[in-house]
Write a structure and sequence with these properties.
- This protein is an alpha+beta fold.
- It folds into 3 domains: 70 residues, Uridine Diphospho-n-acetylenolpyruvylglucosamine Reductase, domain 2; 114 residues, Uridine Diphospho-n-acetylenolpyruvylglucosamine Reductase, domain 3 (2-Layer Sandwich), CATH 3.30.465; 208 residues, Vanillyl-alcohol Oxidase, Chain A, domain 3 (3-Layer(aba) Sandwich), CATH 3.40.462.
- 24% of the residues lie in helices and 28% in strands.
- The protein contains 11 helices and 20 strands.
- The strands form 4 sheets. An 8-stranded antiparallel beta sheet has the order 15-11-13-12-18-19-17-20.
- The longest helix is centred in the C-terminal third of the chain and has 16 residues.
- The two termini are 30 Å apart.
- Bound molecules: flavin-adenine dinucleotide.
- The site of flavin-adenine dinucleotide (FAD) has 33 residues, from strand 3, helix 3 and strand 10.
Length: 427
């Protein structure tokens, strides 16, 4: 087991903490650490944004990196919790398989996918990661290892899906895969000149299994809420399951904080909108699902001050008006979001009580961390709460404690505690 004490932060680079980070090599070492400490939190690859995978004592699962079984006839994979989705992709895509549900980044662990119960661009059709989860092994505070599934320790199974690591340490994960005809996608780009058109595009084009929109939050007047929607479906592609190597660029150092300012952000959004081309084209799987992976360490664009992502979901009946109000509130504030992603969501499994999406729309907004952004977050929280919405805890860094609509105290477990949990509990 390696132990180090250093400053860590998640993807948003805010907040950060000086922490003891241990990386146990196996479950015996995990057990000794769990038993020896009164407080700790499991960490995957730190790709949540805010304070979820942070605490004074952090247990990294990255050494749990073995793929245990690939039952490819049935499309089932079992792996240790620290295996990255990117490593799994390298094994499953050449065999004609893909994930039913994938987030917009592949450098996350299987344990992190369960603990946040991640969703993708196909939520109305496929739900969250838990929809396809068969079972996992969980080490609880007593050091015991429990197998959890819909039939065995079912309460703990559902508490852990989206439970942000508060039930214990996930050791291994078994889940279902989906057959694909090739590694190619047909992508249709729709350019929407305003908010009304962008919602209409989502509603009209529901036959596409995947959809995600980008909003230009800086546009105003008749262009208010303009953006682009990217629909896609898997297609036959000359039987090819090979994935072209992504041309990757890297942000090698933290940019000075002044680089992203309201003017440069407006220019960036203008450029993105004017460059978008309507129509259909073939793209490879990585280009559609993981476009941001092409720019490594893009979080450094925001400088050392970091950024916060505010991702909220509103019930269907309030989505259009609510998002309009949110955009107006942002426009009346000194803050300017650099990137914003709109998704449609369907029903969630009734048992998946901690999953983020509710039937409606979610919008994810990335703001440079300025001194005044917290005031804006408070105003956005009020709107979202008042409309019956919620925020995504895995992105959260500074929202009000009720905003995730989850009570960590109800987990009845004190040992597994992150900064996020402490903040929600008011500690
Ligand atoms: C560019 C980008 C795009 C993203 N797009 C999406 C998206 O489209 N949809 C979506 O749903 N999410 C998205 N995310 C968020 C990301 O998928 C989740 O935050 C995911 O949980 C990160 O996994 P991780 O392995 O890095 O876990 P970490 O960030 O290390 O931890 C996340 C949470 O999981 C817990 N955890 C991790 N491993 C374990 C374990 N073994 N046992 C118990 N608890 C554990 C941690 O305590 C923490 O609460 C995105 C993130 C980025 C950076």
């Amino acid at each position: 087991m390696t132990t180090e004490t250093r400053y860590i932060a998640n993807w948003g680079n805010f907040p950060g903490i000086q922490a003891e980070i241990v990386t146990p090599a196996d479950r015996t070492e995990i057990q000794s650490y769990v038993l020896a400490n009164t407080e700790l939190i499991a960490r995957g690859n730190g790709k949540c944004y805010g304070d979820a995978a942070l605490g004074s004592h952090v247990l990294s699962t990255l050494a749990l990196d073995k793929i245990l079984h690939m039952y490819l006839d049935e499309g089932i994979v079992a792996c240790e919790a620290g295996v990255l989705l990117s490593d799994l992709l390298n094994r499953i895509v050449p065999e004609g398989w893909f994930f039913h549900v994938t987030p917009g980044i592949k450098a996350i662990t299987a344990g992190g996918a369960v603990a946040s119960d991640v969703h993708g661009k196909n939520h109305p059709l496929k739900g969250c990661f838990s929809n396809w989860l068969i079972s996992f092994e969980l080490m609880t505070a007593s050091g015991d290892v429990l197998t959890c599934s819909r039939a065995e320790n079912a309460d703990l199974f559902w508490q852990t899906c989206g439970g942000m690591g508060w039930t214990g340490v996930i050791l291994s994960v078994t889940f279902r895969l989906m057959r694909i005809p090739s590694a190619q996608m047909r992508q249709k780009t729709v350019i929407a000149e305003n908010l009304d058109e962008i919602f209409r595009a989502f509603e009209d084009d529901q036959q596409w299994p995947y959809a995600a929109g980008w909003l230009d939050c800086t546009a105003s007047g008749t262009a208010f809420g303009r953006g682009t929607v990217y629909f896609a479906e898997h297609v036959e592609g000359n039987g090819a399951f090979s994935r072209p190597a992504q041309k990757k660029r890297n942000i090698p150092f933290f940019f000075p904080s002044w680089v992203l300012n309201p003017l440069s952000i407006r220019m960036h959004n203008l450029l993105m909108f004017s460059r978008a081309k309507a129509g259909e084209r073939l793209v490879d799987l990585d280009t559609y699902f993981y476009p941001l992976d092409r720019l490594q360490n893009w979080n450094r664009l925001y400088g050392r001050r970091g950024f916060i992502q505010y991702q909220f979901c509103l019930p269907e009946a309030h989505s259009f008006d609510g998002i309009r109000r949110i955009l107006e509130t942002i426009k009346s504030s000194p803050e300017t979001p650099f990137l914003s992603v709109l998704k449609r969501h369907g029903e969630r499994l009734p048992e998946a009580v901690h999953s983020f999406p509710i039937r409606g729309y979610s919008l994810a907004l990335d703001f440079p961390r300025t001194r005044t952004v917290f005031d804006l977050v408070r105003r956005l929280d009020e709107i979202v709460w008042g409309l019956g919405g919620k925020i995504y805890l895995t992105k959260d860094a500074c929202s009000g404690p009720r905003m995730g609509r989850v009570d960590p105290a109800a987990f009845g477990e004190e040992k597994f505690c992150s900064l996020l949990k402490r903040r929600i509990l008011g500690g």
